[in-house]
């Protein structure tokens, strides 16, 4: 038996509760894991609150991230005692996820826990930080260099934004952070942002082409924010899009792409191939100061995860929430 957050669906909709589950109910997989830490991400909050139809199969244990130790394995790459990390792969949507003390998974979905991080630190990074690293990798691989100009990060106080600022700063880029939280400017500058702007500048419909400001962008918002960011990107610049906090729509024109040669780089963290995952975690191991994790993460027990999910929907969460599934 183990403790888990379990989401089920009834006539009145979905409901999440902390409960005790028999090991026999674990889904199929060739690796079993004692989970040490998990996280809460925006997608987890959507699943737990039912604010969006994230869960595709009921009942479901949410949690798109986990870190723990393998207890049994029939997978060629893994053995009992190996410490591993999981991000994405539909876990928490179609396969039971990390907000539980036990997991049974496909071993192909796992990567080794980087030696530079503890399990707790790896979850302070989580999918949010791993996605931020994918975005930075995408911009760097596109050819963005620190001397090319400012990089804009939207949704800057969130998990993706916070880690993106820290990684970009470490790599030598000048970062402008966009936020609607006036009381978080000191936090963002502590992470390395040189300038902080109001997200309201990007939140409404703007001109198809605007003043060139950004050499690169990491966008977590979508909708008008992404459209305006593209319209303000310099000739030959690039925008890494990874989120939809403002909306899934993209009310833009082709002008930035055909008149300024701007590139829109889609960043997917869920099904990213192993090579990209390992590259992103290598960047995190190299460029992310573990001390930064202390400033962006707060810890809760498994039983508090359901209530904490509401903060994401309300937009009040700063940084990362990590979950001690054994507390």
How would you characterize the overall build of this protein?
With 327 residues, the chain is an alpha/beta fold. It is 29% helix and 28% strand. It has nine helices and 15 strands. It has helices spanning 42-49, 119-142, 159-170, 185-191, 223-231, 255-259, 274-287, 290-296, 305-314, and strands spanning 2-10, 13-21, 31-40, 65-73, 83-87, 102-105, 110-112, 151-153, 175-179, 195-198, 214-219, 233-241, 263-266, 297-301, 320-324. Strands 3, 4, 5, 6, 7, 14 and 15 form a seven-stranded mixed β-sheet that branches. Helix 5 links the parallel strand 11 and strand 12. Helix 1 (42-49) packs across helix 9 and helix 2 crosses helix 7. The longest helix is centred in the middle third of the chain and has 24 residues, at 119-142. It is globular and about 60 Å long.
Order of helices and strands: EEEHEEEEHEHEHEEHEHEHHEHE
Q: What's the pLDDT, averaged over the residues?
A: 95
**Helix content class:** 25-40%
Give the CA-CA distance, first to last residue: 15 Å
- Described by the principal axes of the CA atoms, the overall outline is globular
- Kindly state the number of beta strands: 15
Let me know the largest β-sheet.
7 strands, mixed
Radius of gyration: 20 Å
Helical stretch count?
A: 9
Low-confidence stretches: none
**How big a fraction of the residues is strand?**
25-35%
Q: Helices and strands: which structural class?
A: alpha/beta
């Amino acid at each position: 038996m183990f403790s888990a957050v379990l989401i089920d669906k009834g006539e009145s909709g979905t409901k999440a509760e902390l409960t005790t589950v028999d090991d026999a109910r674990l889904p199929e997989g060739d690796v079993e894991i004692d989970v040490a830490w998990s996280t809460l991400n925006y997608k987890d909050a959507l699943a737990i609150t039912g604010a969006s139809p994230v869960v595709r199969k009921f009942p479901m244990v949410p949690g798109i991230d986990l870190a723990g130790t393998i207890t049994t394995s029939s997978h060629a790459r893994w053995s009992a005692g190996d410490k591993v990390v999981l991000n994405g792969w539909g876990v928490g949507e179609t396969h039971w996820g990390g907000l539980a003390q036990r997991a049974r998974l496909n071993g192909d979905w796992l990567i080794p826990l980087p030696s530079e991080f503890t399990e707790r630190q790896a979850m302070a990074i989580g999918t949010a930080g791993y996605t931020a690293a994918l975005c930075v990798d995408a911009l760097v691989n596109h050819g963005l260099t620190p001397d090319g100009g400012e990089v804009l990060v939207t949704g800057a106080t969130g998990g993706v934004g916070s880690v993106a600022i820290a990684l970009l700063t470490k790599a030598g880029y000048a970062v402008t952070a966009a936020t609607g939280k006036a009381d978080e400017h000191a936090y963002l500058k502590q992470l390395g942002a040189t300038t902080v702007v109001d997200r309201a500048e990007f939140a409404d419909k703007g001109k198809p082409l605007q003043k060139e400001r950004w050499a690169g962008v990491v966008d977590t918002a979508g909708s008008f924010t992404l459209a305006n960011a593209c319209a303000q990107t310099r000739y030959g610049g690039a925008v890494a899009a990874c989120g939809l906090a403002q909306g899934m729509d993209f009310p833009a024109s082709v002008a930035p792409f055909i008149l300024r040669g701007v590139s829109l780089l889609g960043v997917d963290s869920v099904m990213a191939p192993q090579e990209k995952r390992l590259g992103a975690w290598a960047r995190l191991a190299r460029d992310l100061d573990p001390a930064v994790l202390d400033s962006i993460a707060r810890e809760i027990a498994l039983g508090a995860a359901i209530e904490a999910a509401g903060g994401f929907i309300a937009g009040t969460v700063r940084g990362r929430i990590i979950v001690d599934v054994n507390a």
